[in-house]
Amino acid sequence: MKQEFQTICPLDCPDACSLLLTVEEGRVTALRGDPGHPFTQGLICTKMRTYTDIIYAPGRILHPMRRVGPKGPGARFERVSWEEALDAAAARMREASARWGAESILPVSYSGTMGVLNRNAGQRFFHRLGASKLLRTLCTAACKAGLDATLGAGLGNDCAGMARSDHILLWGTNPATTNMHILPFIQAAREKGAKVTVIDVYRHRTAKLADAFVPVRPGTDAALALGMMHVLVREGLIDRGYIGRWTLGFEALRKRLEEYPPERAEAVTGVPAAEVERLAREYGRARAPFVRMGIGLSRHANGAMIVRTIACLPALVGAYAKEGGGLFEISTGAFGLDLAAYERPEWSPGGTRTINIVEVGKALTGALGGPPVKVLFVYHCAAAATLPDAGAVRRGLLREDLFTVVHEILHTDTVDYADIVLPAPTFAESPDFFTSYGQYFFGLNEGAIPPRGEAKSNYEVFSLLAERLGFEEPDFREGLWEAAARILDTPRLRRAGITLEALREKRYLQAPLNTANPFAGGFPTPSGRLEFYSERMERMGLDPLPAHVPLAEGPENPAHAGRGMLQLVLPPGHHFLNSTGNGGARSMKGEGEQRLFLHPEDARERGLAEGEPVRVRTARGSIVRPLRVTEDVPRGVAIIPGVRASRHSPDGRGVNELTSQALTDMGEGPCYHTNLAEAAPAGAENGREGGPALTGAAIPATTQAP
Length: 706
Hints:
- This protein has 26 helices and 27 strands.
- It is α/β, with parallel strands linked by helices.
- It folds into three domains: 65-139 and 335-426 and 453-477, Rossmann fold (3-Layer(aba) Sandwich), CATH 3.40.50.740; 142-329, Dimethylsulfoxide Reductase, domain 2 (3-Layer(aba) Sandwich), CATH 3.40.228; 558-681, Barwin-like endoglucanases (Beta Barrel).
- The strands form seven sheets. Strands 5-4-17-16-15-6 form a six-stranded mixed sheet, covered by helices on one side. The protein has a six-stranded mixed sheet with strand order 23-25-24-27-22-26.
- The chain is globular, with a radius of gyration of 25 Å.
């Protein structure tokens, strides 16, 4: 018997696709896009096209296991029952709480699933337990902080509106790889004459399809935006009516812009002054220009300020209010869920410490102080591969006194360090409902097949653990959809007719927002206006105006002058989503060998040749990768697409060995793309042959302009 089930893609992607799964005899035999979804329109990416490889992967974890023998690569496990596994986890939690306090227990989770119920299922359990709280900032925290400072919320004009734009800037984003469902809207605009320009640090798939490509030095995008704004104001290409009605602080901004003529923008960004002027004039003369920013912009140490600054640009020309115009980066502020009613933050004892996920390496190695972490519970997060400063994370995971539980679908790097392994379901086996951070629709997944083996969802696991620890609160006994109904039960959503019943009937519902112009009635800032000048930032001791802040790990820092350093950026791979896809045979084949990409002159100066192994070193560690020489990468920049598990890397080390635990300027996000690196033949000592080893792992994230 053949059946088709409508589901939602659970991966950490802005698109949250609606999918149709064909099931025959209890097995998923086909997966395709749902043509009825207004945003995703039946299209699916290469990652999801091969997802059945993960559902039925040979490395799928199907039963609870206990480690026997040493931790680390090659670790061996024996099968145990769920009762044994949960009893062991509960016993170690009780012991840790009694001996070191509940803060010695640390949950680590992120976005292995974006389903609202399962992604957040552990929150109330760990709050009730009194465990250390985890600040989950890896993805949108810094960009949301930047948007909050200017717009007041993580909102923007719907990307579907790009179909009606006449001028599109794709800034720091590669939608052909990371956001493919906006491509039809872009193509529709191009067919009507719109120009598409990509601004980014290297020429990627999308840049090769665009009308123009503007390479910019990593971490300098704010200077480019300020240079463009200088030209707009100087040449009168601004909407004074919109500025007067809907913005705050224009005169202060105008004075700041005097500091950023195109010549200064060129000196900082590498974009010629004439090109800065051309970009500004084309943007200012467009009827309805649209800017689609990528989250990668915020993964620099100055990332929140970059986002804040670019978000000012559409206000100067009134684009936020124009049909087909505006700006978009994330949509997280649109959905209005009552997550507190589900997560129960009030159950966490007062004064309980919070550990940023960026600093898990420090927490596990004792560098943060406070109670030692004695029990680690990792769920929907490939911590050993995806967290910053992976070397520090791995050293912490190797501690013999650390008891680690890992709830996972496949045997990942993190599983190698587990004491107890619990089998998790794929999205095809696990009901949930979804929001999105790249569009404005709720979605529903009621599951398509039973869980394989003995897999249990996050929701089930934490309910079972709560029972073992004697937690009597009724929350832990409520059904999955009962919890969903509570989260959706807010006055705003009720008024819009968004209920669990409506979602079950219609499968997807639009968030209660004017998505074409979410700021038609004003901005959710303290002033009700877009804030060029932010008094909140001033009170925080930050620059209240947009600015370019040089990176400490960047070429403007005189400490690095003359050292031949490269700015290393780690963009997403085309066939992987973070580490998801590493377990699929077709994804691995499609992605091919992970390589270091360098400009021909940078390779020549270092004596490096195509295909040869190169040691890439930062202040945190080093890895070896074969070289690809290409003019798609500008001089002074190094690119390694990620993320690949260490088990699939030629030297047994992943790219996050090179990244730091530094925090962004606002939002406390990661600095994945702020890395000064050396590249040398793999056999050379101390990075560059004959040169000094890199030092300075503790240098600050940013520095004031020299």
